[in-house]
Design brief:
Elements lengths: L2 E3 L5 E4 L2 E2 L6 H12 L4 E2 H8 L6 H15 L4 E4 L3 E5 L4 E2 H9 L8 H10 L14 H28 L4 H14 L4 H13 L3 H19 L5 H12 L34 H15 L6 E5 L6 H14 L3 E6 L10 H7 L12 H4 L15 H15 L5 E6 L6 H12 L6 E7 L1 H4 L3 H12 L3 E5 L5 H8 L8 H8 L3 H10 L9 H10 L3 H13 L5 H8 L3 H13 L3 E3 L6 E3 L2 H9 L3 H15 L10 H11 L2 H17 L3 H15 L4 H17 L6 H18 L2 H17 L3 H15 L4 H17 L4 H17 L5 H14 L2 H15 L5 H17 L3 H15 L7 H15 L5 H13 L3 H17 L3 H17 L3 H17 L3 H11 L11 H14 L8
Parallel strand pairs: 1-7, 8-11, 8-12, 9-10, 10-11
Antiparallel strand pairs: 1-2, 2-3, 4-6, 5-6, 13-14
Helix pairs in contact: 1-3, 2-3, 4-5, 5-6, 6-7, 7-8, 8-9, 8-10, 11-12, 16-18, 19-20, 20-21, 21-22, 22-26, 23-25, 23-26, 23-27, 24-27, 27-28, 28-29, 29-30, 29-31, 30-31, 31-32, 31-33, 32-33, 33-34, 33-35, 34-35, 35-36, 35-37, 36-37, 37-38, 38-39, 39-40, 39-41, 40-41, 41-42, 41-43, 42-43, ...
Length: 1013
Amino acid sequence: MPQIRLLGELEVVRDGRPVPLPASKKTRALLGYLAVEPRGTLRERLCELLWEGPDDPRAQLRWSLSKLRPLLAGVELRADRERVELCAGEGDVDLRAVEGAVGREIGSAPLDSLRAAAARFRGELLDGLDLPGCYRYQAWLEGRREAARALRVEILQALCERLSGEPEQALEHARAWVAAEPLAESAHAQVVRHLGALGRRQEAMRQIDACRELLARELGAEPSGPLERARHELNARPRATAVEVAAPSRARPVEASAPGGGAQLPFVGRAAELRTIEALIAAAAAGRLGELLLVTGDAGVGKTRLFAELTARVAAAGGRVLAGRAFEAEMVRPYGAWIDALRALPAAAVDAGLRADLAPLRPDLGAAHADADRGRLFTAVARLLAKEAERAPLVVVLDDLHWIDESSAALLSSVARAELGGRVILAAGARAGELSDNAAALKLIRALGRDRRLRTVELGPLEREDITALTRGVDAGVDSSRVFAESAGNPLFALELARAGRDGDASLGLDALIAERLERLEPRARELLPFAAALGRSFSPELLDRASGVPAAELLAAVETLERGGILRSSDDGARYDFVHDLVRNAAYRRLSLPRRRLVHGQIARAMEPLADEDGALASDLAHHAALAGAAELAARACVAAGARALRLFAEEEADELALRGLRQCEALPAAARLPLQMKLYALRVHARREGDARALEAAISRATVESQSAGLTAAVQLGFELLSYLYFRVEDFRRAEDSTLRSVEAARAADPTTAARVIATTSRCLVLIERDVRRAEALAGEARAIEDAHHLALPEVRWALGLVRHHLGDYDGAAVELALSVERYADTVDHWSQAMCLLELAEIALERRRPADLLRWCAEVERVTSKMSEGSERPFGAALRALASVLERRPDWPEIERTLAELRAVDAKSVLAYALNTAAELELEAGDVEAARRRAVEALAAATAVDRRTEQVLAHMLLARTDLAAGDRDAARGRLETVLPCIADRYTVASRARRAAAGIAEALGLALPLTE
C-alpha cells in the first residue's frame, strides 16, 4: 500500500521510496486536495477549484485523474459522473493518521502517539503546491494549512509540557514550536526554560534578545508575561562554573561547484543534442534560421546546462547572448522574461529610432513612450534582434517557459514569426508536463508547431559513463555505479548524491538531499538564505540587503559563501544573483514555516515599498510579497498600480488577473479602505475588457456603489456610476447607461475640479452617444470646458465630449479638431477603449465627408490601438469602415465589406452595424444598385430599432424612401418621411446628417419641413 505524505512537500511513497509524481502542478494539487478531504467532491467543484479558465475543464479533470490512477495503485480512486473520492483504506495518509492518533483531546493523548505525530510534520501542508491563479483552491489551501499548523502547535505544546523533566527532548519540540509560530512568545519562553535547564545560559539569553527584536520589528511590542517569567527563572538558576562549550558542528565542507553543473563541472554526454546545437549555429551563421528551439525535460535533467553550452559556443564564435527566465512568482509581470533578456544590451547599442517603442521594456533608454503600442513594441524587438545579429549570430534564451506570462508568450510568438535575417537563435526551456498548466505557453508551442517553426529536443537521463564523468568532478572516490542506479541518470540528483558521499541516502529524494546540504552552511549564510529564496526570482545585492537587514559586509561574505558553495550564481555583469536551480530555491524556501514566511515576505515588501517607481515596474513584485505577508491593503494598492502598468503595455490578461488578486486582498479590509480600492480594481477589469463575466462584474460594481453611498465615499460612488455607464453602453443598454451617467455627475460636482470636469464631460459624452438629451449634453460639455479652463487642466474627456456634440450638430471641422486633441491626450493613458472610440468618431467624420485618405489614416490608427485589445465591436467596426473606403476610392471591394459586416453581426453590435449598413446602402444607391441598398436599409432599420438609435432609424427610413422614389412610389416615400418628422423637429434629437437626409427627401417630394434650430 502506498503512503501519501501531505505534511510537507506532497509525496507518494511505495516500498519505502518516493515515486515520481505527475509533472503538472494542478494534477498534484488535485491529488493533495482529494487526500486532505475525507469525503467525495463534486466534479463541478474540482473544476472550479483548478480549471475555471480552460474551455473544457471537465476534460482537464479527466486527464489529471488518468495520471493519478497508476500512481495510486492500491488506493481506491472512486470517480463517477458526479463525484470524485480518494478512499485511503489501508493506505497511509499522514494528515489523517495524525488526526486519528491524537484524537480530540490532545493533552491526554499517549506520549508515544504525540511523538509519532510530531515526527510526521516535515513542513507546511502541501508545501510548494500554491496556485495563486486558482483563488478558490488557494483559499481552501490556506485555510487547511492554518488548521494543520494549529494542530501541530497543539501537539508541540503538549510535548513541551509532558517532557519538562527531559529538557533535551523538550528543547527539540520547543524549537519546532518557535519555527511554527515565530511570534508566539510562549514558544520562545519554552526554548529559554529548556536551555536554562541544560545549563546553556548564553544561548538562552540570545533567544530572549532574538525574541525581543522580532516582536519589536514585527509587532512594535515588548515581551510580556511568558518571556519575562522565563527570564526571571533563568536568572534565579545558579550559574554554571564551567565554560559553555558549543555543540560539535555537523558542517562539512561545501564544494565550489554548482548543482546545475555550472562552468566548474564538465559538460558530459548529450552528443545528439550537441549536434543539434552545432547545426543551429551553422544555420545562423549562414542566415538560414527561422524556428524556435524548445528543450524539454524533467527538473534537474540539465536543460539550463545545455543552454549554457549553447551560449558558450555562440559567444566563442563572436556572437552575443541574451538570456531571460520566467519565474513562478511573477506570472503577472508583463514581459518579465524579455525585460531580463534585453537588459544585457547596452543602451548605446540600441538604435535611436527604436528607443521610444522599446521604452516599456527598457525605461533606462531615456525615451518617452507616450504612444506605447503593443504591435509597435513587438516590431521594435524583432528589428532590434535582427540588427544585433547582422554582425554575428545572436542567441536569445528564455528558460522555464512553463511559467511565462501571457505578454512574454505573445512577444515570443511574434518574434518567432518575424523576419530576423536568419541569424537569430531563439531557444526556450520547459518542463513538458507543466506546460499544460500554462494556457499561454501551451498555445504558443502548439501554434509554432502547426506553423513548422518549432524544433523540440527532449532531454532524458544521462548514461552511466556520463554520470561517472560528472560525479568524479565532485568526488573522485564516489561509487558512480551506486550514484547512477539511485539517481536514475538525473544529473542534479547524481551531483547531490556525490556531494553527500557515502552518507547520501537516495531514498530521501533529491529535495531532501539539497535540504541537508543547506543545513551544513555556516550560520550567516543559512540566515540569509530564506530571504533570497522568498524573493522568488533573480535579485540585486542591494534589495537583499534592504530586505534582510544583514550588515553589508556580512551580507557580501554570506553571498560569496553561497556562490562558492554552488547555491547561488551571479549574472555575467555581477549585478544580480539567482539560485543555481529552482529545486535549490524551493528547498531553501521550505525551510521556513508559514508564519516565518509571512514575516520574511513582510520585510521584503517593506523594503520594496519605498522603491516603488512611478511607472509601476516593481508593483507586481510588491503585490506578491505583500499578499504573502498578509498586508492586504498594501497588496491591493500595489495590484492597482501593477494593473495600470499592465494596461499601458496592452497586457490585458495580466491586468485582469492583478485586479482579481487585488479584489481578494480587499475582502477583509474595513469599508473606508476597501471600497475606494475595490472601485479602482473594478475599473481595471472594465478597461481590461473581460466580457465573459460582464454581468457578474456589473452586479459587483452596483453593490460596491450602493455601499459607497451609505459610507459617504463620494469619489467611489462617482467612479462606480461611471463604470456602470461604460458597461451598459457596451451592451447597448442605453436607458441604464443614461441613468448611471447622470447619477455619476451628481456625485462628481462635490469633488475636486479635475474629477468634476472629467465626470461632467463623460456624462455629456454618454448622453450624445446614446442620443438622449443632447441639449443637456451640450451644456455639460460647456461646463466641463469652463472648469478645465479655470484650473488650467488638459483632460481628454472634455475634448471628446465637445467633439461628439459638434459632430452631432454638423460642425465637422470643429469636431475633428477636438477629437484629434482627445486622441493625443488619451495616448498617455491606459484607456485604450476611449482612444479607439475617438479614432472611430474621426473615421466616421471622414467617411461622411467622403474623404478616403483621412478615412484610411484613421482606420489604420484604430487597427493599431485595437489590435491587442480584448474582443469587442471596435476592431470589426474599424475594419468595416476601412472596407467602405474602397468604394470612395472607386475600387469597391464588396466581398470584404460583406465579411466585415458579418463580423459585426457576430459580435452583436447593433448600433455600429446599423451605421455601417446605412453607409453601405447609401454608397450602393450612388452606384445605382437600388435593390442591394434596400436590403441593407431594411436590416439597418431593424438593428437601429432594436437598440433605439434614432439617427440610424431616420437614415434607414430615408434610404428606403429613396428606393421608393426610384421605384416611382411617392406615397410610400411620403409615408416614411411623415414617420420620422417627430425625430427631426429640432437639431438635438438626431444628428445633422439624418436631418439633411430628411430634407433631401422633402425636397424631392416638393415639401417644406418644419425644422427648428
